[in-house]
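Forgive a beginner's question, but would it be possible to get a protein, spelled out as residues, together with the matching C-alpha cells, please?
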Amino acid sequence: HALREQDILTLFPGGIPSREQSGSDNKEGFAPSPSDRALFQIHATKHSIQARMARLEHNAATAKQNALDARKNGKRNNPPSSAMVHLRRHKAILAELERCAAVLANLDA
C-alpha cells in the first residue's frame, strides 16, 4: 500500500499486518519495524482527526443555525433560553475543534 499526500509518499509494503501475522507465520516475509508501525499509527490518527473535525464543523454550523432559529422563533415556540443552549453547544464544539487542530498540528510536526 502507498499513500500520496501532496509531495509526501508513504509506503506500506504489504500493508501493516496484525499481531497474528507478524512473526514467522507472515507469508510475505514482511515484519514491520516499530518505526513503520508508528508512522502508520500517526497516519491513521491524522485521518481520524480530520474526519472528526469535518463532523464537528458540520455540528457547529447546525448548532449555530438552531440558535438563530430558536432566537427568531423564541417568543412563539421556544423559551429564549433555548437559543442559549444551542449557543453553548456551538461554543463547546468550537473549543473541541481547536483541541483537534492542536493535536493535528503536533502530528504534522
The two ends are 23 Å apart (CA to CA). The first strand starts at residue 2 and ends at 5. The helical segments are 34-72, 81-108.
